[in-house]
Specification:
One of its GO terms (cellular component) is cytosol. The protein has helices at about 5-15, 20-25, 30-45, 60-85, 100-105, 105-115, 130-135, 150, 185, 200-210, 220-230, 275-290; strands at about 50, 55, 90-95, 120-125, 145, 155-170, 180, 195, 220, 235-240, 250-255, 260-265. It is globular. The longest helix has 27 residues, at about 60-85. Among the domains are: about 1-85, Orthogonal Bundle (Arc Repressor Mutant, subunit A); about 160-260, D-Maltodextrin-Binding Protein, domain 2. The protein contains twelve helices and twelve strands. The strands form three sheets. Strands 3, 4, 5, 6, 7, 10, 11 and 12 form an eight-stranded mixed β-sheet that branches. Strands 1-2 form a two-stranded antiparallel sheet.
């Protein structure tokens, strides 16, 4: 099989359509179909399922995709290495981000990086912690922002300690003599909670402090959570990074005991990054790594 075959397979997997893949790759639909048929004949099994709803991966195709991504990533690394040897800074970097990094850090990262490295393209994928973990492990992205606790077995460079805050509707704090919210006070409130995949560190805090929260509201988006709190549907825990310049009338307080998440930059093989990826990795570390994490 050729690199073009792998590119055809990956593009169809991404867009779910032979015709869209043909447009993206500048090929005819018949050429796309022929490439997949040849691939399946060579493999001895089907990698795609065709239906009226579109094209999807078979179970075999799902298992094959990470290896195809690895081959294509190696090809991109080779091209970048050659460009590096020729004194050029070019290539592509694919980054996975979760919501608060996307809104608070990403615009400045993209702006400052593109200002220095105009020939390096950047592709961004936003999702939950679980999404970013999947993308890193399967070669969809080169780098990904995660909390250290959510990275698990993926190598991660710690960058920033982000304090967790308790968020309440404006003016509703019961004990106004303190500037924090303790566990006992939290127990008297209903919570607006987020799914485990959205912020595992908050879920860990709840479990560690035996907070059996009651909630009828299970959302994914940070600002949706805060909007429900503003309207009196409960309280929530939220990283401080999220609470910067929010458009909602809520009060936020440190927790007692104190809690935080550590944001880091993760890569599956940090010692074998393509030149453009290494350049982006170093750019982010230099810009955001706090002194307590510097080696």
């Amino acid at each position: 099989m050729t690199l073009l075959t792998y590119q055809v397979f990956k593009t169809i997997a991404d867009v779910g359509s032979f015709h869209k893949a043909a447009d993206i790759l500048g090929l005819t639909p018949s050429a796309i179909s022929h490439a997949i048929s040849s691939m399946e004949n060579e493999l001895g099994f089907s990698v795609l399922t065709r239906s009226k709803a579109g094209v999807s991966l078979t179970n075999y195709g799902e298992q094959l995709l990470p290896y195809v991504n690895a081959v294509l990533n190696c090809d991109e690394s080779l091209k970048q290495e050659i460009a590096e040897l020729n004194g050029l800074k070019q290539g592509k970097v694919k980054i996975g981000v979760f919501s608060s990094v996307c809104t608070s850090w990403l615009p400045e990262i993209l702006h400052s990086f593109k200002k220095k490295y105009t020939e390096i393209d950047i592709e961004v994928f936003q999702g939950t912690y679980d999404d970013v973990v999947y993308w890193i492990k399967n070669g969809v992205v080169d780098l990904g922002f995660l909390s250290v606790s959510s990275a698990k077995d993926i190598p991660i460079e710690p960058l920033y300690r982000d304090e967790l805050l308790c968020v309440l509707p404006s003016g509703t704090k019961a004990n106004k003599s303190t500037n924090y919210i303790d566990i006992e006070e939290m127990k008297h409130h209903q919570f607006v909670t987020q799914r485990d995949s959205t912020d595992a560190d908050i879920q860990n805090f709840l479990k560690e402090n035996s907070l059996q929260v009651q909630s009828n509201y299970h959302v994914v988006d940070d600002l949706s959570t805060i909007a429900l709190v503003e309207k009196g549907f409960g309280i929530c825990l939220m990283p401080k990074l999220v609470m910067t310049d929010i458009p909602y009338k809520v009060d936020s307080y440190p927790t007692k005991p104190p809690a935080s998440r550590i944001i880091g930059l993760a890569a599956m093989n940090p010692n074998f990054m393509a030149p453009a990826v290494r350049t982006m990795f170093n750019h982010i570390v230099d810009k955001y790594q706090e002194n307590e994490f510097k080696k």
